[in-house]
Design a protein that fits this description.
The chain has helices spanning 28-39, 47-55, 63-77; strands at 2-4, 7-10, 15-18, 24-25, 44-46, 87-90, 94-97. With 104 residues, it is of the alpha+beta class.
Length: 104
């Protein structure tokens, strides 16, 4: 397992643990998304780069799939998925994974 900031990713069991919480099981796609974002913690990644990494191709029109995937990951890692503090949308660009809670 790999720990980056407050996230511990276990590629064998496809789980993530946030801080000292319980491990949460992810699908393969959710895990691929979160692993890339965790290895770029604090950096904004473009939607194109994320879809290319997760699905392995650079097609257009995949933003909706990515949006749904991000939504599902938020349900699993956010305290309040309707007010994300960890997996942040950067309008017009993509997404950023932040370490722990912010007061923003």
């Amino acid at each position: 397992s790999t720990t980056t900031g407050t996230y511990t990713l276990d590629s064998e069991n496809l789980t993530v643990r946030v801080q000292d919480g319980e491990p949460v099981t992810l699908t393969r796609l959710e895990f691929r998304l979160l692993r890339l974002m965790a290895s770029n913690l604090g950096r904004t990644l473009s939607s194109e780069r994320l879809t290319g990494h997760v699905w392995g191709y650079r097609g257009l029109g995949d933003r909706q799939l990515l949006k749904q995937l991000v939504h599902r990951v938020r349900q699993k890692i956010e305290r309040d998925p309707t007010n994300p503090q960890r997996l942040i949308t950067v309008a017009g660009v993509g997404y950023r994974l932040q370490d722990g809670e912010t007061n923003a």
